[in-house]
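Weekend entry, working from home. Most of the wet-lab plans are on hold until the incubator is repaired, so I used the time to fold the two sequences that have been sitting in the queue since the last round of cloning. Logging both here for the record. First:
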Amino acid sequence: MKLIIAVVQDKDSNRLSEALVKTEYRATKLASTGGFLKAGNTTFLIGTEDENVDDVLQIIKDNCKSREQLVAPISPMGGNADSYVPYPVEVQIGGATVFVLPVEQFEQF
């Protein structure tokens, strides 16, 4: 058995949740916040048998797309202003960050 932890952008979370339910994979959704952009994310915890991991990963891949977004830089407060860029920068956001972990034991009460 494996535990799949998928961190996805909030914009993709409903689509992924619906796809998981449609294919009868159970998941727990947790609200989370990204460290770099401080933007809202959703973390999915999905427990599944080893043979289903590739199917779940494909569902995540199909429903979580990366996109470009302009981000206004944060002014350095008391820091080194030499590397400060005073104009918006385009960054890639979205997609999914996925971890697949082995599960030693699973209980449901």
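Second, folded right after the first finished:
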Amino acid sequence: MKKTILVAFMALSGFYGVAQSDSGFGIKGGLNYNANGDYFESAGDAARNPDRNVGYHVGVFGKFGASKVYVRPELMYTKTKSDYDGSDFDMSKLDAPILLGINLIGPLHVFAGPSFQYILDTKFDGVTINDVENDFSVGMNIGAGVSFGKLGIDLRYERGFSENEISFINTNVTTLGPSRIDTRPDQLILSLSLAL
């Protein structure tokens, strides 16, 4: 994990060294609404319990490019929570999206790009969790935002590409074998960013 953080920091530093006039870096944070693969099935639960699947993220970003097109690498610590049959599945991970963005009109911009995720920890109520199939996975971010000087707000959708499961044994109910949870992210992410 230390190597991953060091490599990401060096990449951000390298991007910063070749930055152009519209380039910079900053901090960001916000809320995640996570479903881990189950948006449509969890829509009714979200209406009844809107805080049930809410998580958060904090991190840093770099922004490099000309006035119209930019590249924005990010490094974030993300904590997500999902509901599975009344039990909470918590996951902590490092996210490293690399976004390509286009400034449209005024403060409005759109962006998309791959997101690399490294799972740090998982926890599920009332069960014993075995290892995650893959600690490292790849997903996609797509979204839009507005910038007001140094302050920015964006909303994005993230979906994991890599199939990634956790097997577990339920200690509350007698079952005939281990069960599985799909840990691919499927979430909406609302962020507030501040350029430094």
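Plan for Monday: verify the second prediction. Residues 84 and 148 are 39 Å apart (CA to CA).
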